[in-house]
Amino acid sequence: MNRRATKAAGGAAQAGTGAATLHGVVIAAHGRHYLVAPDAGGAPLQCFPRGKKSEVAVGDRVEYQSTSADQGVIVAIGERRNLLYRSDQFKSKLFAANLDQLLIVLATEPHFSEDLLGRALVAAEANDLKPIILLNKIDLEAALPLARERLERYRELGYTVLEVSEKKHPEEARAILTEHLRGHQTILLGQSGMGKSTLVNLLIPDAEAATREISTALNSGRHTTTFTRLYKLPDGDHSGGALIDSPGFQEFGLYHLTEGTLERAFPEFRPLLAHCRFYNCHHLHEPGCAVLEAVEDGRVEPERHALYAQLVHEISQVVR
Ligand SMILES: Nc1nc2c(ncn2[C@@H]2O[C@H](COP(=O)(O)OP(=O)(O)OP(=O)(O)O)[C@@H](O)[C@H]2O)c(=O)[nH]1
Ligand SMILES: [Mg+2]
Ligand SMILES: [Zn+2]
């Protein structure tokens, strides 16, 4: 790689200047600023996407051209296996691309939102990602029974629910998490203060230093996470894998999903769908609806159906 020659070319941002096209992975995103780790190794470069609209996500494989020793321009995004994002009526916000798993990080305290948990599960199902639910801070014993009780429903649905105390029992937590995370590309999602970054620091030896470095590069520096960042898991056993830390969020709009995707994103609905009287049943008010019958006799939880109905309502607000 000859960065100096590229710089001398004086305009890698314009096409056809003869700048070498290099390959890398996007490891951090903050607005229109990205950090790209070169495939060839070496320090990450600060990159901007070519063109006005930035649609690059952490985890993307990209082609870039370097414009100086530590800067570059992204010229192409590689094909994605998947792209996780949230959306409202007006805009969408990318989480990350090329994922295997979604780790939903909850805590005994602060009180977690079941609405956000339900939406994260739907997002995982809709993207064919394995969801794992993590209950952290089980050392806070006063709040533990209620948190466990609220998660029972999700265990019954067949979801994996793990319990740890990242702070009080870090060794145990590390063993449990390593078993589920090694070899996979996993994004950590959750509200602020649940322990996502603490988890990353527990599993990635030099994460804290890397975070500080990037905070400086991207002009942020607060304790709470303000940008999405990918960390490679220690590769002692060559299993590979990476963790993606993301800022805590309060809203998880799924306006981009279709009704067909939504109904199948509820695993307890799936065996019922073929038994509705109408083939195009919306499972909201229709007579002979197998889902509504299951809600009626307790096989489907009313709260889960209410989330489905709310999501259907939201997607109906979008002018397609
Ligand atoms: N009691 C207790 N506190 C914990 C535990 N794990 C993390 N914390 C604390 O919870 C607070 C929030 O942790 P973070 O890891 O910064 O949370 P986060 O999910 O990254 O939050 P955002 O970056 O704002 O989204 C910190 O003060 C941690 O020290 C735990 O197992 N027990
Ligand atoms: Mg954080
Ligand atoms: Zn139905």
Automatic annotation (TrEMBL):
One of its GO terms (cellular component) is cytoplasm. Binds 1 zinc ion per subunit. Keywords: Cytoplasm, GTP-binding, Hydrolase, Metal-binding, Nucleotide-binding, Ribosome biogenesis, RNA-binding, rRNA-binding, Zinc. Its main location: cytoplasm. GTP binds at residues 136-139, 190-198. Its cofactor is Zn(2+). It is found in: Cytoplasm. SUPFAM superfamilies: Nucleic acid-binding proteins, P-loop containing nucleoside triphosphate hydrolases. One of its GO terms (biological process) is ribosomal small subunit biogenesis. Its EC number is 3.6.1.-. GO terms for molecular function: GTP binding; GTPase activity; metal ion binding; rRNA binding. Zn(2+) binds at residues 276, 281, 283, 289. InterPro entries: G_CP_dom, NA-bd_OB-fold, P-loop_NTPase, Ribosome_biogen_GTPase_RsgA, RsgA_GTPase_dom, RsgA_N. The keyword Plastid does not apply. It comes from the Bacteria. Residues 97-250 form the EngC GTPase domain. Residues 87-252 form the CP-type G domain. Pfam families: RsgA_GTPase (PF03193). One of several proteins that assist in the late maturation steps of the functional core of the 30S ribosomal subunit. Helps release RbfA from mature subunits. May play a role in the assembly of ribosomal proteins into the subunit. Circularly permuted GTPase that catalyzes slow GTP hydrolysis, GTPase activity is stimulated by the 30S ribosomal subunit. Monomer. Associates with 30S ribosomal subunit, binds 16S rRNA. Belongs to the TRAFAC class YlqF/YawG GTPase family. RsgA subfamily. This is Small ribosomal subunit biogenesis GTPase RsgA. It comes from Paraburkholderia silviterrae. The gene is rsgA.
